[in-house]
Design brief:
Shape: extended
Distance between the termini: 20 Å
Mean pLDDT: 80
Radius of gyration: 25 Å
Order of helices and strands: EEHHHHEHEHEHEHHEHHHHHHHHH
Largest sheet: 5 strands, mixed
Number of domains: 2
Low-confidence stretches: 1-30
Structural class: alpha/beta
Number of strands: 7
Helix content: 40-55%
Number of helices: 18
Strand order of the largest sheet: 3-4-5-6-7
């Protein structure tokens, strides 16, 4: 990854936008609104833990060392898994002290880990989902073995908020009434945790006080396929917006929530903003304005960065074409990284008529 040197008027380094094309191409094959919102939520460990504590069965939860909980960076996930768009993966250690004593006493007891593999569906799939989650499961285990690790205890979690009821049977259920146990025991029975937001009622969500601000997300996801809901019933989401999470997490979540609601409402930005100010509690309006002022300032800064990158590109190409200055001098004069100059030099060698 190439970086420009620090621009004197902006106190951070500039990341060249060469990966934006890859990101855009990937997003085309998915439902972008839902995908961005869900992945945003799953990027906030504090919120992920709220979901795990609610939906992981207690008999499993006692074996999990949540003090070691963290998200798993893509660099440690099998490339095939990343390419197939699993939403997020988190991990925590197996709590050895919770194991039966006879197992604890085993010499050189391995350090196992749990991997929580998230997959969300905004529409009902046309085929059983077991094949997909099993591909993901074994991609993680295969990556573990390939890298000399003990295989992970993979727990897939499927989050559904489609328009229609989830009625898909698991594969083994389609054989069950018709085959004897001797054959049934050979059929795969993959397990996963299923979070069905679509079928969860508003009243049930209201009682999920342990989910805190995520109740607002559940209401938004549950009604995400109805634009008029956000136009006419925005307060149904905002009633669950509360600030018990840390400020950084709340600000990130609230901004993502508003952006998601605006896209799903199909309202123009200024109209949506006016509606939000009308529906929000007075104490929340300040947070709303502050978050969007920061976002607007960030967009302005990013625009300046793009402009500085383009100016530097033009200057580098022009100086290279003169064939007078060594690349080290160009980098020093223009205050850019040497690698950036080398990249422009390579492009110019391929295309001598290159224009900035």
């Amino acid at each position: 990854m190439l970086f420009l040197k620090t621009i004197k008027t902006i106190n951070f380094k500039i990341l060249l936008p060469q990966n934006k094309i890859l990101m855009a191409n990937r997003s085309k094959v998915r439902n972008r609104d839902h995908d961005i919102f869900i992945k945003g939520i799953l990027s906030l460990d504090e919120l992920v833990l709220l979901l795990l504590h609610r939906y992981i069965p207690q008999e499993l939860k006692r074996f999990m060392d949540f003090s070691s909980f963290k998200s798993l960076p893509e660099s440690k996930i099998d490339n095939k898994l990343v390419a197939q768009y699993t939403d997020s993966i988190h991990e925590c250690a197996l709590l050895k002290s919770a194991l039966p004593e006879n197992i604890q006493n085993i010499l050189d007891l391995p350090n196992f880990r749990f991997c929580f593999l998230w997959e969300h569906k905004s529409s009902k799939p046309n085929e059983p989902i077991e094949a997909q989650v099993e591909r993901y499961r074994y991609a993680i285990i295969g990556s573990d073995l390939k890298n000399g690790r003990k295989p992970s205890i993979v727990i897939p979690i499927v989050l559904y908020h489609g328009e229609t009821k989830w009625t898909i049977k698991m594969v083994y259920e389609q054989f069950e009434p018709y085959l004897p146990s001797e054959i049934l025991k050979l059929l795969p029975r993959p397990h996963y945790i299923f979070i069905d937001i679509r079928s969860t009622t508003k009243e049930e969500i209201e009682k999920m006080v342990d989910l805190k601000v995520l109740r607002a997300a559940f209401i938004a996801l549950k009604n995400a396929h109805e634009p008029k809901f956000f136009q006419n019933n925005m307060e149904e989401v905002f009633k669950f917006v509360e600030t018990s999470s840390s400020k950084a997490v709340f600000d990130s979540f609230f901004k993502m929530l508003l952006e998601y609601m605006q896209r799903r409402s199909q309202l123009q930005g200024d109209i949506f903003n006016e509606l939000v100010e009308q529906k929000l509690e007075p104490t929340m309006v300040t947070n709303f304005k502050t978050i969007f002022e920061v976002a607007e300032e960030k967009a302005k800064i990013e625009g300046k960065i793009e402009g500085e990158i383009q100016k530097s590109r033009v200057a580098i190409i022009n100086m290279l074409k003169l064939r007078t200055f060594p690349i080290e001098q160009i980098a020093d004069v223009l205050e850019v990284e040497l690698e950036f100059v080398k990249q422009m030099q390579t492009e110019l060698e391929v295309n001598p008529n290159l224009k900035a």
